[in-house]
Specification:
The structure is a single chain. This protein is α/β, with parallel strands linked by helices. α3 links the parallel β2 and β3. The longest helix has 22 residues. A seven-stranded mixed sheet has the order 3-2-1-4-5-7-6, with helices on both faces. A two-stranded antiparallel ribbon has the order 8-9. About 35% of the residues lie in helices and about 15% in strands. The C terminus is likely disordered. The chain has one domain: NAD(P)-binding Rossmann-like Domain (Rossmann fold). The protein has six helices and nine strands. This is ThiF family adenylyltransferase. Pfam families: ThiF. Keywords: Nucleotidyltransferase, Transferase. One of its GO terms (molecular function) is nucleotidyltransferase activity.
Length: about 240
Amino acid sequence: MQDAFSRMELLVGNAGEKKISRAKIAVFGLGGAGSYATDALARCGVGSLTLVDHAKITLPNVSSQILAVHSTIGMSKVEAAKKRIHDIDENILVHTYETFYNEETAGMFDLHAFDYVVDAMGTLSSKLLLISRAKEARVPVISCLDMGNKLDPSRLEITDISRTAVCPVAKAMKMELRKRGIRKLKVLYSKERPVKERIFRRKRNNVPTKPVEGNISFVLGTAGCFLAGEVVRDILSTGMNVRNG
């Protein structure tokens, strides 16, 4: 008898489908890559998804984020994601936190409760905090690095952070992680050199502000699917009792 996941079961087997259906995944950051990763994980029928993001959907998100359509503008990203997930599979348990992850809010999350953590946040301090907490809890974590100003999805790669090149965020993270005694971290990054920033710089009170990065749907969508694929393959290959060191 066919169901929503019968085609997937042909690929991963009944035992594999059951493993996935018991998986508890946390996704921190529901921007471009994080929203696509969440969607892909839901379509694999994971057991539960915990979603963390403080932002609401805005008009510029429409060009690059799967949650963003004109009817969702103004909605919180976590609530839009929850609605979409339950439209895919009403049996997935969804926990939402409309909050910014930092030192003040990190205590809200018991990372031991998760089988995998996806870091798709854009703030370096939040990423470092989450990675450190996940390592302490010995929970597998994958971190998505900067996808801004990139046009070539074929240049994406999953590797250990020690093997990254080109990416300035990776360089900064390596230095900060070493200070925290963390030498290994699975990351998704782009080997593409950023497209030169041109029109993205804006002024406020005639004072130049930080350039706004450009982004595009097919890079962020590919990144999200890479993240989800790595999580599911790890769950299938190791079960859910293996913890990162």
